[in-house]
Design a protein that fits this description.
The structure holds 2 protein chains of 2 kinds.
Chain A: H1 2-22, H2 34-56, H3 64-86, H4 92-115, H5 120-142
Chain B: H1 5-50, H2 56-103
The chains are: A mainly alpha, B mainly alpha.
Amino acid sequence: MKTGYKILSINVLAALFLVLLNGCTVKYVAEYDAGIKEEIVEIAKKVDIFWGELLDRDGDDRKYSSFKSAYNEIEADIRGLVMKNEIRPLNKASTKQVRIALDLWVEDRELHKKKDGFSDFQAKRHRKQFNRVFTAMAIGEDLKKQ
Amino acid sequence: MGFNVEDVLEQMADAANSEVVDSIGDIKAFTKEVLKRKEESLKELALARAADEIDDEIFNMEIEREKKVVEAELLTMQIMTKAFAQKAVNAALNIFAASVRAAL
């Protein structure tokens, strides 16, 4: 009788062990989110169009008021992305990346407001900077695919 | 079927190692690209300042922005190393689970 109990106990333990093993994976990064990746690409496109339209205008036709609504819209998009990233577990690096994009965007808005214009040199440079930041973000999201 | 600890450990190490080997190339290529873009950007900035195209205020502002952009790029490398470590550890754990299952 005792031997029967022993065999049963071993079988139960083995079954439990198998159940544990099946769920035995480690997680160091957040789950991949295709929606977030798509949103990064969409915002990157909007930002690029923004700089393209600004650069299309002559230097004296780049008043802040002409771009105010675009600044607002893009800022809201980036803030939304910050929020979505913040609520995901294991996602500190991606959240920091979007915060950097937001810092740069707010800085550009303040600069534009202060000078009521934008030089070709800085506009071209900042267009490239945003491209680099959004590319880094998109690659970062892609890496979470397992 | 038996459970040979040494064999299993070796297979686990091989699985983790093959994930690591695959990822080293990606990390190297990305690092190279980040450094290249940073160099180009700083070169452009230095040339513009030397040609008096920009003043000190703009030069300093751009240096600060460059630091933020590089930080964002380096954060991708942080995600990359964590994601590759995750793959390597899980590959080893999968081998372990499969070996235990086969032995039972």
